[in-house]
Structures are given as structure tokens and as C-alpha cells.
Design goal:
156 residues, alpha/beta, 3-stranded parallel β-sheet, 3-stranded mixed β-sheet, 9 helices
Amino acid sequence: FLKIIHTYPLPIVGGIYGDIGPDAFGLNVSFDLRIATDKTVISHPNLQLGFPPSALLSFYLIQGFGPHRATELILTKSKISSQEALDLGLITHITSTENVKDTCLEKLRILSTIPDHTLVESRHMLQPSIDAVREYMDAGFESALRCLHRIISNDI
């Protein structure tokens, strides 16, 4: 699914509402524009559950903030409100639950005024390499397996 998102030629606008977990939000961060409702809460309980942070979310946080700020967010914020996410630049707009669809459509209408070839090339320039994402995801999967093995070993 990430490869489809990553290689899709035109910008992707995503609507986010309710409680959203770390992997789903990590996928949303790969979208070009992210519209969240005022009730959205992003949570990542992985550390409390004995697992490493979401690989995809970690990747995009490191890309956006650098490793030190990403580490601070992952280790100290198990929940992020939509307002905090907007302030951090994790989402691009906040709207009400009732207006999330219309707000997404309005953003798409604005983007539709830009020539397609310009959008395609802009998206290509602004997206990280799919190979870099894949490598990070593979490392995250291995890390999660090691944690799972430790959890199982301690419980037996």
C-alpha cells in the first residue's frame, strides 16, 4: 500500500479523524496534505507495550524533524492532539468532523489548478526515496521481532 501511495503521480490528501494509531498515522504522514478533525488524537503506545516505535512514523518524523526531535517526540509524547500535530507540522489543517470531507475536496480543487506535469514532478522531488523507506521499514520489522522474542522469552 505504501508503494502505491509513494508512486502515485498526483498529490494525495488524507482526512484523519478519531483516535489514530502509530502505523496508520505513519501511513498518513506519507500523504502530501493531511486534514485532521479537532477531535483527532494520534497515539503511539508501542513503548509502553514493549515494542519499538512504528517504523513508518519514526522514518517520517526523522525526515521532518531530524533524529533528536523525532526521538524526543517518540519517547515523551504517547498522545498528540490535533492542535499539537498542526503546531508540529504533522498535519496541514484542522477542521470539524462534519467538514473533513469538504475540506479535503477543497484542497484537491486547489491542487487541480496546477498543471498535472508540475504536480507529478513536485511530488517526485518532495518524496523520500522508496528504497530508503523500505530499508527503514525492514529494520523496524526486525526490531519488532526482537522485542516480541524478548517478551515471549520472559513470559515462558
